[in-house]
Each structure stands twice: as structure tokens, then as C-alpha cells.
Amino acid sequence: MLAGLLLAAPPAYAAPDRHSSDGERGVRLTVPDRPGPAERSVQRSWRLAPGVGYREWTASMPQGPVRMHLLGVDLTQPDVSVDLAAGPTATRRSTVSRLVSRAGALAGVNGDFFDLGRTGAPLGLGIERERGLVHGPRVGWNTCLRLDDAGRARVGTVRVRGGVSRDGRRVVDLDGLNAPVVRPGKVVLYTPAWGRRPGARVLGDVDRARQVGLVDGVVRWSTTEPRSGGPVRGQVLLGRGRGADALGRLRVGDRVRVATTTSDRTSRVGVCGSVRLLRGGELARLDDPWLHPRTAVGVDRDTGRLLLLVADGRSRRSAGLTLRQLARELRALGADEALNLDGGGSSALVAPDRLGRAGVRNRPSDGAERRVPNALVVHAVP
To answer: In what order do the strands lie in the sheet with 25-28?
Structure first.
């Protein structure tokens, strides 16, 4: 597959590289990039619902044609809302089509990057309207799109905060909730929203570790040999190094209180991405020359519109975009703020056609939809 891609590629392609979202090799943009907006052709558009529209076009870029797909969402409309849709657990993946259908949504795009090789869990913070905060780290993957009660969208940093208290005093600080990695010296809380007990899958090579099980706020068991498999019942605390030492101070039978929250308590929906593309209408410092399929979300603060953009890539029909090109396209569409979501073979946009038949509007580079942990979905009355 890779050899065919490189042999068929236009001259703008050169040495391959790996893409962080899926490990697939990308190609480097080696011709001069144009700073202005791309020339567009073959544009089609239709309305999906009051306040929600779909548009597709081909952009003429230095690397060749790039096929793009856009969901425009007017968040000021009373019957329009956006949510994060995911499976029953953080480690359960599904296609965007199924996530949109299960949520009873009109349309959607893929969301957060995820741990492709081990757990399948999303890397960043996730907040759903019904379940609230379901996963996220304290630091490391915290640049998010967030929506408040009024439906206003912003891009910024949101962190998970929390701890374990005994007799009113904090005894353990939490480094995350249902996170795919326990960092050295830290403790992460796992709940039934994670899935099966994480154990070694999230620890890596460690000198010492400890796993503590809580049921109804009482320590029921504690072990230095973390258990894997079986569903999480109650709550499980997992620590490495000094984090394991801190958990060792908890004794079976202790009554404790576990609390988790976020640094932005106004957020009712949240999903994270890799990098911020736009801030106040200005391009962020982006030095990524690699061409890939891309998914991104932009916010037009003047109109209250959300812009969900997918660019196809890894084919002669569509060469893909660099992050800087992606940012320029979103700015040309009216975005003031923008965030890069998972891309590569994960990029998928699902929406009805002109006759109302739901389907994948772009061409995923894997040849079919990839299973992903979550999707940003649009609810509206068609």
C-alpha cells in the first residue's frame, strides 16, 4: 500500500514519515507553500436542518488537489446542539457512523486521538452532556474544544483535578481519570466507564506499583501486583513509584472520599486534540510539513458557528494537508479559534445526503471507516 502511494505521488511528495494518529507513513510537502487561501472548485452544498449545512469542494494546493468536507453548525439556533458521543467504556471503539446513529444525532466527525496499540482509549479529556466528565489527564493532552450551558464554544486548556481524602484530609493526588497511561510517580482513578481493570496495560515497565479497590467509598483490597481483566467494580486506584507509595498509606477498611472535577467547571461538552491551530484569528506556530488526512474544529465567535472540517488525503484524488494549511483553510472559512482533532485513517465525516440518507461523505484513507473511541456529533431537527 505504501509503495503504491509513493510511486503514484506527484513531485511534491518526498521521504515518508509517521503520523502520530495511526502510525501510517505520510509524505513531506517539498514545494513552496502558498500563504493565501486555496482556489476552490467543484463545490456542492445542501442544508441538513435549520442551522446545519454541509459543503464539499476541491481545493487546488501546491501538492495537488485536496478534497474537503465541512459541517457548518449554528449554535445560536434553539434546536441545534453538539455533544461528545462514545461507547459505553473508554476502551470500546466504534465507527463514526455507529456513534452518530446510537446518539440519535444528525451528523458528526471523529474526535480525540487515542492509544491505538494497547488500550484503545482516548488520550485527552472527554465531557459528555449526560455522563459529565468521563476521562482525561491532569496534564499532557489538555487542549480542548469546550461548550458551556449556553452553547458557546471555545478552544482552550482544560485539566482534570482530583484527589482522595481520608478524615477530611487529602492523602492522594490524582493525575487523571480513566487515562491510558499512569505516569511515573502518579496515581490515576479508574471507574466502570473505563471498562476492564487496566493493570499492566497502562503501567509499562515499573519498579513498583500498587492497585487499590474501592466500593462505596471503602477500601476493599490493596495489592502490589496490579490485576488485569474483569470489569472495574466501584473504583480502582493505580499508582506507580511514589504514587504507589502514597496508595500504600490506605488500609483495607478505610473510608475515603474520591473527588474529580475540571479546571473549567462551566464546560458541559469537551473533546481534546493535538494542537491549537488558530488563536484570535491568528495562525499558531505550526511547523509540520507532513501531508495527511485531517479533521479539525473551528469556532467563529462572531456568528456562533462551529466549523467541522475534514480533508481527505493519501491518494491521487486528494493529497492531504499540513497543519498550517489546515489552519489557513479554517481561517478562510471564518474561524477565530481552531483545534486539530485525530486524523489519518480516523478522519470521517458522517451526514445525510440530499435525500436524507445518512452516510460517510468523505473517503477514509483506510478504504473504510476506522473504529474510534468518540465522535463530535450534531443534534438538530432535519
So the answer is: 16-18, 25-28, 290-291
